[in-house]
Design goal:
Shape of chain A: elongated
Structural class of chain A: alpha+beta
Helix content of chain A: 10-25%
Number of helices of chain A: 12
Mean pLDDT of chain A: 83
Number of helices of chain B: 17
Strand content of chain A: 25-35%
Structural class of chain B: alpha/beta
Oligomer: heterodimer
Number of strands of chain B: 12
Helix content of chain B: 40-55%
Number of strands of chain A: 30
Distance between the termini of chain A: 124 Å
Largest sheet of chain A: 11 strands, mixed
Number of domains of chain A: 4
Largest sheet of chain B: 5 strands, mixed
Largest interface: A-B, 99 and 115 residues
Strand content of chain B: 15-25%
Radius of gyration of chain B: 38 Å
Distance between the termini of chain B: 38 Å
Shape of chain B: flat
């Protein structure tokens, strides 16, 4: 009796209290746990006042859509020799946040709308104020194509390049944050950025400096900002790096121009570059900050090749009737002198990228914009459904949700907009032969009529032991001296396994001239375990960076190099162990015998041999056998006698 | 001394050097450092887990009308009896109440457990939602029958300390069915947990939502309430073009959990691990895309709401909406308020705090009990970790045990004793003690895991015995053969010679004796 009344009273009291406190602890009184295993259904309060309000009031449709800080552009620029540069540009901004915000405070929430969720926490955990990441691969033909897009500021050397402005109380702390940053980015972009350690990291002095317009905020007055940089030249750029890039976008590659980004097409190109730049921007008076991010994907495709690949995914020779033969020369079913490539071009970008643009991105203030930069003999049209449109400036806004396509046609594809000439051509090569020493030669060619001032940044691995004293200048102009070219040098020598050689030289290249700077280095031996799995491949040396400050701001990079070090035979250590051990064992045996065995004169030895040598033993055996035989012969005679 | 004796001595000394100096030195120089772990102690702790723990929870009794001078002793006796009634083998941890008289001014009903005896017409009890008070109603009859102490004891153990009663004493539970369901629901405990709230829509049309105020209204109180044992960090986000693969469930009017768990694609939400915390709870509010049109199953409930929420074990909550978002949608505070308040309720389940809806009678008592459970769980976890460490090192004899591991193990055992002292001391028992013990136990788990996952041990950069033999055999083989063949040869020589000598000596003795006899 007791327990029953007990429970009923308890339930009654409980229900009263539950209703009193219902708004803070919404409790569902009607529990029915029908679904029992993996997914447990829970239900909203049946008597909630919100359910009496019609649902339409919960989800409103705004007359003016909310506009986020997101913008996307696609620039298409035909280049000489039937190449096409496609530049996808995305700009986004985060929500604002306070400078000294503690995430653990119960009133603090971080909200994300168009800005990617993972980037903010990485930046704040590592106190990074500016982040620049480059994935570049391929060769930009600056002789033919002119300047790099965005004056080279958005592309890196071959492989991965990362630099950041990190706030920290000391250099060591900033370095720790840097390592954390590299590891986080490595996970985010599926790249081996985690191989960045102190032996690959430099603190640039006059290169990579942030421009004066971006005032980098300092969150803590007692700390300072550190510019840190590293590059991994042997990193292959592949689809698994593009997928996370696309995932960072709010449209996730499903609408807007990002729907064209397909790894198979982007990387099937002569040159491609993925870049990310994140800045922290703070309001001076309010202490509120936000991140702004620029995400660029740029690629140069060879149009005829890509179109051919789209038509015939498996390469097959063209049929006889499709061949374009030179009719001035003999041609029949068996011989054909091909004509030079056709100058008549007619293609859709959907054929180049494999897809059409799936409508507009509606998130930003402005809709997705596509611009083609072509001279007047090109015809550029945007295709929406079956309709084709043109505009005066060849720029189109993608407004509707229909699939869009861009159509290019011209009778002379050789005629393209002349891009600005590169202010300086830089190339670098390894010289010398042999496995113990080598040289490095950088060639600078200034094609313009103005002297070019630049900062030449080189970061060389510690196993290249550089002789700065061997720096030599080669030039046609015999009046030119080293001092007139190299204005100043910053040099931080390498420390074995700890930091790389860091060289920054301020150079002035006279107008219309070519000169070469070269120096020598020794190759050091690595430890047995320091060789990578494919040691015979060689070691990639990251590109040198030329930051041109005058006459215009431009960044040029040399190609990366492949350095051969002497590579051991990896079974050698064990062989050495066995050989030395055997020699030592032999030596020991001889020595031991010498001191432990008795020395005898020849006569003594003969005497002993006479009794113990095999010959003597054999003789003894013979004697025994003969004796036995004799005994056997005598025995039967005796028996016969007794019988 | 003849040269032959000298040479025999040389052979002997080489052999002795080999055995007495060479072998021990070689062994010493090639053995791996293995710090001596207190293996036996850890094993004994592991086999008799929690044996040295006896939780004591102080409870204060006050009576507002009658004065019972010895009622606390009576309740104590009844409570002890009730706790003893459980099968000893089933019991997980020993625990008991310490029933003390109420002292005015010293005790606060907010911080300490107080039992208030109130005279009423019938028997009953209530546990107010805020505070840790248990009010027991009694009538004169019960006083006369002397039933009151038993009621009070029963009220305390089976209601106020129900959680301990079920978890520590393993008392038979009323709702055994729900238990198995909820056992795997909770995310593993960690002092820092991340909450990730996402609004997902299948479309690309921009969405705005009034999330900040809704969170501040409905989630902040929960964060404050739970702040003593878990710290949350929260972020929110909007994702477009992601409806968790719901479009494949369009034409179903009702679905089973099986359909849903096979269809929902949470990988994109789970794979992004950008927060520092190890564990996370997710809330995904999903709207189907406009092309999908409405999902019929999402409003199968009798109320008029257009959404339904599903708990995903160890992951979080998925709120599925029936209708797609309107174009240029604005998700209002009203909508989010109901969603977030339901989610706030589900957080308790995902933390393992409550198992069913009616569990949350008095959250403060519940949270305190939960803290005790975490402490005990942490102790168990750390002892299991240490025991696994000992087992692993025993199995892999070639694995080195660095000094740091030993230090960590000793440190862990020291912390464990500190915690046990805190738990066992009947003088303590206030909020401070439990918080301190919880803090220490979290530290304990960390220290144990650091010991187990020590880099040198995890990397397995140890050489197997065969390698050692392979490397040393080319040197040791020839030397051993040379030294010992010479040694045994000379030994044999010495033995045969001494035998010969002995027989010769015997013969010599006889002849001399004969000669002597002849001479006589």
């Amino acid at each position: 009796m007791k327990l029953h009344s007990w429970i009923s009273v308890l339930l009654l009291v409980y229900k009263v209290t539950a209703e009193l406190e219902a708004d803070v602890f919404p409790v569902d009184n009607e529990v029915d746990s029908i679904q029992q295993e993996v997914i447990q259904e829970t239900r909203k309060n049946g008597t909630d006042e919100s359910s009496s309000v019609p649902p339409s009031s919960e989800l409103l449709s705004l007359e003016d859509p909310v506009q986020y800080n997101f913008q996307e552009n696609l620039n298409l620029t035909p280049l000489p020799n039937n190449f096409l540069l496609a530049s996808f540009q995305f700009y986004m901004q985060s929500e604002t946040f306070g400078v000294n915000r503690n995430e653990h405070e119960s009133n603090v929430y971080s909200h994300h709308t168009v800005f990617p969720k993972p980037v903010g926490p990485i930046m704040s955990q590592t106190n990074t104020r500016q982040l620049h990441l480059r994935f570049t691969h391929g060769l930009w033909d600056s002789q033919e194509w002119g300047q790099l897009p965005h004056s080279g500021l958005k592309s890196g050397g071959n492989g991965v390049e990362l630099w950041a402005v990190i706030e920290g109380p000391s250099k060591e702390k900033a370095m720790q944050s840097w390592i954390t940053l590299a590891n986080s980015l490595s996970g985010l972009f599926c790249a081996s950025i985690n191989f960045i350690d102190s032996s690959k990291t430099t603190f640039p002095v006059s290169s990579f400096l942030p421009t004066e317009d971006d005032a980098i905020p300092l969150f803590n007055e007692n700390s300072s900002l550190y510019l840190i940089r590293a590059a991994l030249a042997n990193e292959p750029i592949c689809t698994e790096n593009l997928t996370p890039f696309v995932k960072l976008l709010p449209t996730r590659g499903k609408s807007g121009i990002s729907s064209l980004l397909d790894g198979h097409k982007i990387f099937d190109s002569n040159w491609h570059s993925l870049s990310i730049d994140v800045n922290t921007i703070c309001e001076d008076n309010t202490g509120e900050c936000h991140y702004s991010m620029e995400e660029f994907v740029e690629t140069v495709v060879n149009v005829p090749n890509s179109l051919a690949r789209a038509d015939r995914p498996i390469p097959k020779p063209l049929g006889g009737d499709e061949l374009r033969c030179d009719t001035n020369k003999p041609h029949d079913a068996f011989q054909c002198f091909p004509l030079p490539g056709s100058r008549e071009v007619d293609f859709n970008i959907s054929k180049l990228f494999g897809k059409k643009i799936c409508g507009s991105s509606l998130l930003g203030k402005t809709s997705s914009k596509i611009c083609a930069h072509v001279p007047s003999n090109w015809n550029v049209m945007v295709q929406v459904g079956d309709l084709l449109f043109t505009t005066d400036d060849n720029c189109f806004n993608v407004n509707s949700n229909e699939p869009h396509d861009v159509h290019f046609e011209t009778s002379d594809s050789g005629n393209v907009l002349i891009s600005k000439e590169t202010p300086l051509h830089v190339s670098r090569a390894l010289t010398g032969y042999g496995q113990d020493r080598g040289g490095l030669r950088s060639v600078f060619r200034n094609p313009s009529n103005q002297p070019v001032e630049l900062v030449y940044f080189e970061s060389l691995p510690w196993f290249m032991r550089v002789y700065l004293s061997s720096l030599a200048l080669e030039s046609d102009d015999s009046d030119l001296t080293l001092d007139s070219v190299v204005k100043s040098t910053f040099y931080s020598p390498a420390r074995d396994r700890e930091r790389p050689t860091h060289l920054e030289r301020k150079l002035v290249i006279p107008p219309n001239s070519t000169l070469a700077l070269s120096f020598q280095f020794d190759k050091s031996l690595l430890k047995y375990a320091e060789y990578p799995p494919d040691a015979n491949h060689g070691f990639e040396i990251e590109a040198a960076v030329a930051t041109i400050t005058s006459p215009e701001r431009y960044e040029a990079r040399s190609s990366s190099l492949l350095l051969y070090l002497s590579t051991p035979d990896f079974s050698m250590p064990y062989n050495v162990i066995i050989l030395t051990s055997t020699v030592m064992g032999l030596a020991f045996g001889t020595l031991f015998n010498l001191i432990s065995k008795q020395l005898l004169t020849l006569e003594e030895a003969d005497r002993i041999l006479a009794s113990t040598s095999p010959k003597a033993k054999l003789l003894r055996l013979k004697g025994k056998i003969i004796g036995l035989l004799k005994r056997n012969n005598t025995k039967p005679a005796k028996i016969a006698k007794s019988e | 001394m003849s040269t032959i004796t000298l040479r025999r001595l040389v052979t002997l000394s080489f052999a002795l050097c080999y055995v007495l100096i060479g072998l021990p030195l070689w062994y010493k120089l090639t053995t791996i450092y293995r710090a001596p772990l207190p293996a036996e102690y850890i094993e004994s702790l592991h086999t008799k887990i929690h044996e040295d723990i006896h939780l004591t929870i102080p409870v204060y009794v006050q009576s507002n009308l009658y004065q019972f001078p010895d009622v606390h002793d009576a309740i104590q006796a009844q409570a002890d009896e009730l706790l003893k009634s459980v099968n000893e083998e089933q019991r997980r941890v020993q625990w008991s109440l310490q029933v003390l008289p109420y002292v005015e001014g010293k005790i606060d009903a907010k911080d300490d457990y107080v039992v208030t005896l109130v005279l009423d017409e019938s028997m009953g009890l209530t546990i107010p939602q805020f505070g840790k008070e248990t009010i027991v109603f009694f009538n004169d009859e019960s006083v006369l029958d002397n039933d009151l102490p038993f009621f009070a004891a029963q009220a305390l153990i089976e209601h106020t300390f129900k959680f301990e009663w079920e978890n520590f004493s393993n008392a038979p539970q009323k709702s055994a069915k729900t238990d198995s369901t909820f056992k795997n629901m909770a995310v593993s405990y960690d002092p820092n947990i991340h909450i990730s709230i996402s609004l997902l829509t299948g479309d690309s049309s921009p969405v705005a939502w009034d999330i900040d105020t809704a969170l501040k209204e409905y989630l902040t109180p929960i964060r404050e309430l739970l702040s003593t044992f878990v710290n949350f960090t929260v972020d929110t986000g909007i994702e477009y073009h992601n409806d968790l693969n719901l479009n494949s469930l369009v034409n179903k009017s009702s679905i089973s959990w099986n359909d849903l768990s096979h269809t929902l694609d949470l990988s994109e939400l789970s794979s992004v691990n950008h927060y520092q915390e190890q564990n996370s709870i997710n809330l995904a509010i999903v709207f189907p895309s406009a092309e999908t049109s409405s999902l019929e199953f999402a409003n199968a409930t009798e109320d008029n709401t257009n959404w339904k929420s599903f708990l995903v074990p160890q992951w979080g909550v998925v709120v599925i909406n029936k209708d797609p978002l309107p174009v240029n949608a604005y998700v209002t505070h009203d909508y989010l308020a109901s969603v977030i308040s339901t989610f706030a309720n589900d957080i308790f389940k995902l933390l393992g705090l409550s198992q069913s809806e009616d569990d949350l009678t008095s959250p403060l008592i519940k949270i305190d009990s939960f803290k005790r459970k975490i402490i005990i769980d942490n102790l168990e976890k750390s002892i299991t970790t240490l025991s696994s460490l000992v087992n692993m090192t025993n199995h892999l004899q070639q694995m080195s045990i660095p000094k740091e591991v030993l230090e960590d193990v000793n440190n862990a055992l020291k912390i464990r004793l500190q915690i046990v002292d805190l738990l066992n001391n009947p003088e303590l028992g206030g909020d401070e003690t439990w918080n301190e013990a919880l803090r220490l136990s979290n530290k304990l788990v960390k220290v144990c895991e650091r010991a187990f996952f020590h880099k040198e041990m995890v990397q397995q950069t140890f050489f197997p015995q065969e390698h050692k033999v392979a490397v040393y055999l080319p040197l040791l083989g020839p030397i051993t053969v040379v030294t010992f063949t010479a040694f045994f040869k000379s030994l044999k020589e010495v033995l045969t010679k001494s035998k010969k000598c002995a027989t010769k000596d015997d013969g010599k003795d006889d002849t001399t004796k004969n000669e002597e006899l002849k001479a006589e």
